Amino acid sequence: MAAFIENGNRFRLTDPTLAPAAAGYLWNRRMMIQMTCRGYAVSQYMDPEPRKYAHAPTLAAQTFMQPEHRYFAHHPGRFFYVRDDRTGALFSAPHEPVRATPDSYAFEPGLSDIRWVIEKNGIRVELCLELPVDDAAEIWSAKVSNIGKTDRDVAFVPYFPVGYMSWMNMGGHFDAELGAVVCTSVTPYQAVEDYFKNRHLKDITFLAADRTPDYFEVSQQAFEDEGGLADPSALQAGGNLAGGDAAYEIPAGIMQWNLTLPVDGSEEFRFVFGPAHDKAEIAALAAKYLRGDTEAVRSASRAYVDEGLGSFEIESPDAAFDAFVNRWLPRQVFYHGDTNRLTTDPQTRNYLQDALGMVFIRPETTRAVILRAASQQFASGKVPDGILLNSGATLKYINQIPHTDHAVWLVIATCAYLDETNDRSILDEQVAWIDSEGTDSLYDHVTRALRFLAGEVDERGLPLIAQGDWCDPMNMVGYKGKGVSGWLAEASSYAMSVWAEISESRSDSDNAKWLRHEASAMVDRINAHLWDGDWYARGITDDGVPFGVSADEEGRIYLNAQSWALLCGAADDDQKARMLSAIDDQLATPYGIAMFAPAYTKMREDVGRLTQKWPGSAENGAVYNHAAAFYAAALYHISDGDRAYRVLRAMLTEPAAADIAVRGQLPLYIPNYYRGAYHQFPRTAGRSSNLFNTGTASWFYRLVIEQMCGLRGAGDAVVIAPQIPSEWDRCRFRRTLRGATFDVSVERVPGLPDQVVEVDGQRLDGTILRQVEHGRSYDVKVKIPSRVQQD
Amino acid sequence: MAAFIENGNRFRLTDPTLAPAAAGYLWNRRMMIQMTCRGYAVSQYMDPEPRKYAHAPTLAAQTFMQPEHRYFAHHPGRFFYVRDDRTGALFSAPHEPVRATPDSYAFEPGLSDIRWVIEKNGIRVELCLELPVDDAAEIWSAKVSNIGKTDRDVAFVPYFPVGYMSWMNMGGHFDAELGAVVCTSVTPYQAVEDYFKNRHLKDITFLAADRTPDYFEVSQQAFEDEGGLADPSALQAGGNLAGGDAAYEIPAGIMQWNLTLPVDGSEEFRFVFGPAHDKAEIAALAAKYLRGDTEAVRSASRAYVDEGLGSFEIESPDAAFDAFVNRWLPRQVFYHGDTNRLTTDPQTRNYLQDALGMVFIRPETTRAVILRAASQQFASGKVPDGILLNSGATLKYINQIPHTDHAVWLVIATCAYLDETNDRSILDEQVAWIDSEGTDSLYDHVTRALRFLAGEVDERGLPLIAQGDWCDPMNMVGYKGKGVSGWLAEASSYAMSVWAEISESRSDSDNAKWLRHEASAMVDRINAHLWDGDWYARGITDDGVPFGVSADEEGRIYLNAQSWALLCGAADDDQKARMLSAIDDQLATPYGIAMFAPAYTKMREDVGRLTQKWPGSAENGAVYNHAAAFYAAALYHISDGDRAYRVLRAMLTEPAAADIAVRGQLPLYIPNYYRGAYHQFPRTAGRSSNLFNTGTASWFYRLVIEQMCGLRGAGDAVVIAPQIPSEWDRCRFRRTLRGATFDVSVERVPGLPDQVVEVDGQRLDGTILRQVEHGRSYDVKVKIPSRVQQD
């Protein structure tokens, strides 16, 4: 804990060696950047597909975001060398590449900026990275101060490696007119049609400063030479940068100022780094962000992040939880919902779940997402694997592999939107089909999606899995056309039940009846074919072999198959008890509940790619937080708020000192996984993916608001039914819902027999408040029995 | 020159900082490796497509071989740390990553091995890399000797980074039974069909030693930690490797032996490093190469290289030229011809030209290549862009782009094969078509290829260029279907002329007549449409604009358009003189003759990708040795042997001291280019591509043998017509041809009016020796006039 001093909006790490991969992240409408405490960076922007403007020194693969990103000496980063011109002593801020031990160090990622303060040998370097709202550009400010007792001469040398830009063409030069290093390239192509596609691309990477450097260098090789990055030849023996260019050589933006700093003296710098299409664009960006109103830029960037802070705030006995849920969590939800994870073809499943969280931040985004997803549906009712966000986009990577679960998420997102907004007009919106003329209402689209789903079943009536369901790499269970998904059977039943309520509310009783019948028949089939004695099987393979069952040595029990059995109501009380016990026994780890266990250590050709993934990483037996969030949802569903809270809270556990090196991250976001396989691979268990793209964020936020705090819409009414953990004596929260503001205090009262809800001093009969008035503020007090007394 | 001490079969570099990218290369039937003097490596093997077993630390792109490969701190390499256990002093052999200044250093790439001898602080490390003939495996031997005056305790730590193997699964462990570090991975895939494709792949990389290490480490990160590669934490403070594993972490093969070395004492080690499919394969490789007959392995490897040494040897006043041409050049030709550049879909153009050189080494390979290429020809006569070498291969990269020149190379390769072997049976071989039933003779195939070529012309009768000819990136001259290639007009005319001779020899006079007429008509069109006044245009664009003409500011003059005008006989004496003068004025650089000039510095949308490449690199205005070799061929064709020799010799110029950093290579092979654009970018001009894949090697070898030495087959006879450079007073050479051995001495005789050829003491009437007897040795003396007297 010593390393992490939290003040709500900003975290602090005071030792760069304690958690080398600890990173903050920023994004805007065009780009995202993840900066490690030591100065390494992972960034990308949309042009319109994801691209990089700072590259590795080797030709890197174009790929989706990978977990546990690996850093190495020449990894892209942003580095600031400081050389004492009298002694020659060199250090670099934030820490790489020199790795000198700082006298004092603080890495402070905030909501809308990332800051560092490094002190070494009487020099303080303060760094700050901000992003503008609408441009792909990094705005860096740097202040170099003499905090010692004598005058100092120092060389200050920002070094922004640009890396291997292109095998076809790359280079760089200093443009005196722009005051910028301009690194040029041509995106490589061979087919002539790609030339025309590439013409608009931002093939330049530039580093512009707010004042002319004394010296500069553009060639990576000339800069480091024999000295290497830790002791660049160009900075040895008091030398100054030679002012070279890069000609089909790896370029870098490197500038030097020789500063004379009196005691207490300081110098401030401002830089813009990023991609550009041409010189005019560089000039415009430099004018805006170097010479423009810097305070206005900062305010706009804060305002952008504030937009995403949501309409919910909690004050509980758990300050760290509050800070996360009030600021960092909605920020993560907003990142997903506002940028679609910076792809042009989000997986339908992700796209709709990211929109799920947005109902609490900007419900009109959720509305648009639902309608867009439905508009790419096939007339058969089939929901596609990915949603194209612009006309040039194509389905890539995993979106080319057939999965069968997408209809479920269309139902869940639509119901969540209705619960929050009660905007029933969305159901009547006329929506096109991707492969047919004419339009139908959204209601018809969703209904048809479920009818399609109900038809894609085997002879038992269980849903076919094709090459995957929610679990992408479970790709060989059903690739021969026979295997079925137990989880999808449950999720289908659940989706049909909730959609039946919508049908009823529209007096479409035939459909409601059909849905209820289907949902219930599916539950019967689940219990007939998938109950294994103490838990539910995950599915049945092409060869008719149930898996995720007690007979399996690896992959014996899957969390999702239990969570959704609870959600769809398949399990009776005896089954519930057995399942919970099995989960505790087999899936619980010190880092959360694993997605399944034991992890696979060898290929199972009737399960698939999943079983070839590293045991304990990603989907193979990890604490996959998305699955854990489903489990929490199921636990709230069966009113086990304490257990649910523990599942959620485990995702945020601030790493204890001993764990920091393992987790390697600050709890600024919920990562998509912590490594599991705790019993098989204890050394690496608990390690974070360091990847903040995950449907977990939306579910976590929704569960805290709608279940833990228990304030949610339901039809025309509002439900007030908190399920706070028993270790909390009280909590307060505030949220807006249906245009009204609710100030809610929840308090445990010893000896109280039942939960009591008072609205504006009036005791509510039950948990339902009807007729919420737009614009009104409600003062709500919830008294709940104290469970402590039972001991 | 000081840095390069040559002994014919082995070069020597004595300072690793002088030419950091200097590299030797080895290959066998399964793999190739290029090792720099400092320890960095680029290697790949066939499985069946090209794959890597040692990776960068980041997810690298799958791509074709790129020129001017960039090295960086964490680039794959093979490193051997030596730590003095009393003082803690550390160095690494060959040089990286510690970069300690050696007391003595030698890098000695040989024909079938690569050696180093490094001395530092009284310790000598001798390293040797060899490849077996048929396995993808590196065999390393290392000897550590105490050459000082006191006993020494040293830790010897071989470190073989394995890098980022796979995003799906990677790890490693020490297998005590094998005595090997075994790094495992699963080649990533998403589509289920790829699982079945990947199942056979060698997803393991291993390092096995001939004795059990005292300590080991498998995790890259655990090894280097805060110390970094230059001072790994695991080796600091006298520590020993911790014996860890790698679990979804970047693995490395790292072993440690703590040695006590008395004065003059030494220890020897042997390692195998490479890919494997399973443990059994590792065990087999270790048994063969660690515990087997090491001398037999070495002999086999030498024998393999010797197989490729060809049937030609020269002794001239230029010893460096002799060493290159006698050993390194045929070795490079053999590499191409025996491995097809380690691809499964060679470009047809490359495949046939690589086979051209093989006529002097293993003509049966040339024969097989010609027949295979013809068997993939379309029934229309069209020759495909690439030739598939196995049933799973597909056309990739540039082979998916339509080019129009392939027929030309089929003619040239076939004629070269006939000249060398007089094996006319090849012409009657029955060959299938790729898209039609039945077979036809090779003669018919080639003839039909030319008929197809003759039909693919514009209204002027000039050949359409589509998206490229010999020049791949000239992809926008004719993409609209109208642009024509001036070079291809010349090459077509040339090919038709030489094929007319074949037709005549078969008494197919109709065809011969048609070919001669077409060739001659094409020459008329060339002169009508492409002569620009002082040289020939390179082509005419889709919009009817001639380019490569005096009106162009960039790309004014192209070498190929002149060379092939000479070869096809389009130019009269006045035109020749003007062209040669224009070439001297505009294309000559200190590093050879550029392919065109001035290099393009901006996009020309009517020429294409070529103009977007880096000016001076690769095809954009470089000294592209393949084009220079064509020019040399043309110069021999017009009997300008002096100029031709200068063009060829420039490809081998051993870098002068000042150039070493620029060229950065040893003259062990002809690289595909030296950077050109000498007048525009003098700093980088002359820099080598460091890429040994090039059709230049075959042409160079052929020109030396058939033109400079002038001993070649022609129909049933043999021609003896040397064109040695006038600066040579004499030379001797020996070659086998048509089953006979020719020992030829060439001598300049002052005052001699005409060249005189004596065979076994009998003066030959002219230059043609008829009726060569198989098995006989001919003693040939050629006396040529001394040109010096003219001065």
TrEMBL record, chains A, B:
Keywords: Glycosyltransferase, Transferase. Residues 74-289 form the Glycosyl hydrolase 94 supersandwich domain. The lineage of its organism: Bacteria, Pseudomonadati, Pseudomonadota, Alphaproteobacteria, Rhodobacterales. One of its GO terms (molecular function) is glycosyltransferase activity. SUPFAM superfamilies: Galactose mutarotase-like, Six-hairpin glycosidases. Its EC number is 2.4.1.280. This is N,N'-diacetylchitobiose phosphorylase. Residues 711-747 form the Glycoside hydrolase family 65 C-terminal domain. PANTHER family: CELLOBIONIC ACID PHOSPHORYLASE, CELLOBIONIC ACID PHOSPHORYLASE-RELATED. It is an enzyme of class 2 (transferase). Residues 304-710 form the Glycosyl hydrolase 94 catalytic domain. It comes from Palleronia marisminoris. One of its GO terms (biological process) is carbohydrate metabolic process.
